[in-house]
Amino acid sequence: MSIQIGVSACVLGQKVRFDAGHKASEFCNSTLAPFVSYVPVCPEQAIGLGVPRPAIRLQLNSAQQVRLVNSKDSSIDHTETMLRFTQKLLPQLTQLSGYIVCAKSPSCGMERVRLNDQNGNQLGKVGVGIFTQQLMNSYPWLPVEEDGRLLDSNLRENFVTRIFACHDYQQMLQSGFSVGKLVAFHSRYKFLVMAHSPTAYRELGRLVAQAKLFAPDELAQRYLLDLMQALKQQATRKQQANVLMHLQGFFKKMLSGSAKQELLTLIHKYRQGHLPLLAPLTLLRHHLAQHPHQYLAAQQYLQPFPDELGLRA
């Protein structure tokens, strides 16, 4: 089953924005598209707003509630209509492994959406789109990212890592959850989690070790949430190098002195910022091919997503 990703329809190039335009993303439409199936949604069009249509904005009312109103006539309030649509749609999105939303949108923005007071004065870029807020509240484990932020190579790699991990976990659950399956899954993800958060690595390990203290459904959901929160943290060079050192340790008895030194040198140069991650990683993969190791070969860290995406640097 392909990875299903929710996406703001305008990001796919559909001309559904208020000005009848779009915000087509090259990354979403060209790079990522061959590896996922998109579920496009335009919340504003879905609630009956036409194309083109009057612009809308987020506004804080006298009761300190965020409302979705027409920019030029705030008496026209779309909040309840949007909430009804969202609550009807959300139960249909359980199969998603991620969501890409349109930045700055009062319906879809993930963060830093303009918020105004009742007099039209800007209160700052502190809002979250009405639709996306409900989405994240309902599925706190779901990887959500904005089209604009995906222009950043680190954020792009991080998001793709999360959607592939989320899908992998969902696939594991499809045939029924068991502690044994969770232990096997966690074993494959240990080094990937360690690279993103050593603290979360230890916490997830404790959770798995205490698995029998939880009801199966609670454990399954808690692990997924904790895993996604761990992978959302940016992997630093220091943490990546630490993982690489762990991995090279598996080859100590297999490699010649010069081969070990070559690998250690590449890891050190990567840590210092002189080489990309792919340099030591490619050599590790080479040694793994020459000296097969079942545990290492199963590690998601070595290939958290298809190489064809060209995201690791």
What would your notes on this structure say?
By secondary structure, the protein is of the alpha/beta class. The protein has two domains: 3-151, no CATH class; 153-313, no CATH class. The protein contains twelve helices and eight strands. The chain has helices spanning 26-32, 43-46, 79-89, 130-138, 153-174, 179-196, 198-209, 216-232, 237-249, 257-271, 278-290, 294-297, and strands at 3-8, 36-41, 56-60, 66-70, 98-101, 113-116, 122-127, 144-146. A four-stranded parallel beta sheet has the order 2-1-5-8. Strands 4-3-6-7 form a four-stranded mixed beta sheet, with no helix packed on it. Strand 3 and strand 4 (66-70) form a beta hairpin. Helix 5 runs antiparallel to helix 8 (216-232). The protein is elongated. The two termini are 28 Å apart. The model has no long low-confidence stretch (mean pLDDT 97).
Quick check: average pLDDT?
97
What is the number of independent domains?
2
Strand content: 5-15%
Q: State the strand order across the main sheet.
A: 2-1-5-8
Structural class: alpha/beta
User: With helices defined by DSSP (H or I, 4 residues minimum), what is the helix count?
Assistant: 12
Which residues form runs of ≥5 with pLDDT under 50?
none
Topology as a string of helices (H) and strands (E)? EHEHEEHEEEHEHHHHHHHH
Largest sheet: 4 strands, parallel
Distance between the termini: 28 Å
| Oligomeric state of shown chains | single chain
Query: How many β-strand runs?
Result: 8
Helix content: 40-55%
Topology:
Blueprint: E1 3-8, H1 26-32, E2 36-41, H2 43-46, E3 56-60, E4 66-70, H3 79-89, E5 98-101, E6 113-116, E7 122-127, H4 130-138, E8 144-146, H5 153-174, H6 179-196, H7 198-209, H8 216-232, H9 237-249, H10 257-271, H11 278-290, H12 294-297
Parallel strand pairs: 1-2, 1-5, 3-6, 5-8
Antiparallel strand pairs: 3-4, 6-7
